[in-house]
Amino acid sequence: MGSTINSQHVEDEGHVVLFPFMSKGHSIPLLHLSRLFLARRLRVTIFTTPANRPFVNQSLADTSASVISLPFPQSISPKIPAGIESTDKLPSIDLFFTFALTTGHMQPDFERALQTLPRVSFMVSDAFLWWTLDSADKLGFPRFVFYGCGNYAMSVSKVVAENRLLQGPESDDELITVTRFPWIKITRKDFDEAFTKDDHDQPSQASEFNMKAVVATIRSFGMISNSFYELEPVFTDYWNSECEPKVWCVGPLCQVAQDEPHDDHHDKPIWIEWLDEKLEEGSWVLYVAFGTQAELSAEQLQEIAKGLENSNINFLWVIRSKGSEETAGWDINGFEERVNGRGMVVKEWVDQRRILMHESVKGFVSHCGWNSVLESICAGVPILAWPMMAEQPLNARMVVEEIKVGLRVETCDGSVKGFVKSEGLEKMVKELMEGEKGEEVRKKVKEFAELANKAVKEGGSSWLTLQSLIDETTLSSKKLDDESGSHNE
Ligand SMILES: O=c1ccn([C@@H]2O[C@H](COP(=O)(O)OP(=O)(O)O[C@H]3O[C@H](CO)[C@@H](O)[C@H](O)[C@H]3O)[C@@H](O)[C@H]2O)c(=O)[nH]1
């Protein structure tokens, strides 16, 4: 799947337009998906914005994908600082909905650009770019919605919303049975406050945005899920028998990168060298990282440092590069000196998948962003689940309670997104790396790693699903061409 695709080899079997949402967690999987389309001989055009273009270009440098950037309409929302075109660069995640709603102003430019392209067979655009459905409708091609999350989170959220389950209990921590899946219990805290505290007389930006995304999803041709059937069959079957539109599981998309070669002589960051040393010593390493969006307070960072230091476990901790202000207020240098040799702190962008695949890495403290969950599963590394926002609490339930490939960090008040004291982290880190429960989840995650690998190989469930998606859409597009007598350029 990770083979080099160059323009000479691509035959024009159809043309797909991709429009990823402007955040790393949403763009990375769609960039992987574009490689799969290229490998199936489709022409690929990707839309982005000027500030995101270098990342897209770099990710697809060895391919024939065309990249088009449209201006980001920053002037519409002066609260968004000039030059910020990605949610992971926003000064605060509180600006998320302003940012997401602003993207709607890109529609006229998007449609003008689409009109200059060869006939489009179909489009895949992020669920957060709801307005792209209208553009596809106007220009007469089907739109697939890309949801960055898994089918468990999608299905549970749908059942909870439809049955108004969050409105019942008095306390935010009270367990609520998810009626359609009665073995699953959630709390109000598993969901973002933006959605649970809405005032009906004055709908929030969050509910306005949510409504637009949901309505556009229902009207779309299909949904593309970064998951594989064997990971969550109950929830995929539920969706495809009781909900619309159909979901097509074509993941885990991170597997696309599995065969990408690393030039170890010229491309070996110090943290990989450090992991190599640990492997030579025969020591295991815990990887600690919380994705590209999570905002941790200085106090929380301090407790993490203390917990890791006291655990006596080797660790590699990646702190978001944006966060120099996040690390203010605690003595990171003193900490690094004290754990020298046993722990490493990195404040740069890393190749997370490469770290997880390293043989020395045997555990992952993760916020349970869906990409991190999949990357950990594919690498056969068990997770210490520490959800922080968005659908991460549901992903954490899936990881710990449903497929049992991880344990949960201990919050000091027992609540889903509560503060974690150093003792709660230390205890669970030791359990994950050295305890019996850790051993059980390590065994289980390796079973899923094998299933993930099979799913994307030729003849596997995701491989076949992708083929049927392409067949269905490109055949109908060709039929339209034949009927109208037009041709692809
Ligand atoms: O230094 C870094 C930091 C991140 N990553 C990659 O960036 C992605 C991060 O994605 P994810 O783990 O899903 O975390 P978020 O960035 O927090 O993702 C957002 O998007 C996800 C997909 O919709 C949601 O599941 C999350 O809740 C939401 O916060 C992963 O592929 C990581 O491998 C790197 O490669 N290097």
Automatic annotation (TrEMBL):
Keyword rRNA-binding found: no
Write out the GO MF terms: UDP-glucosyltransferase activity
For this protein, the record's InterPro entries field holds:
UDP_glucos_trans (IPR002213), UDP_glycos_trans_CS (IPR035595)
Tell me which EC number(s) this protein carries. 2.4.1.-
Q: Which UniProt keywords apply?
A: Glycosyltransferase, Transferase
**UniProt cross-references to PROSITE patterns, sorted A to Z:** UDPGT (PS00375)
Q: Is the keyword Transferase in the record?
A: yes
Record's family? Belongs to the UDP-glycosyltransferase family.
Protein name (Swiss-Prot/TrEMBL): Glycosyltransferase
Q: From which source organism is this entry?
A: Prunus avium (Cherry)
Q: Please name the gene that encodes this protein.
A: LOC110760832
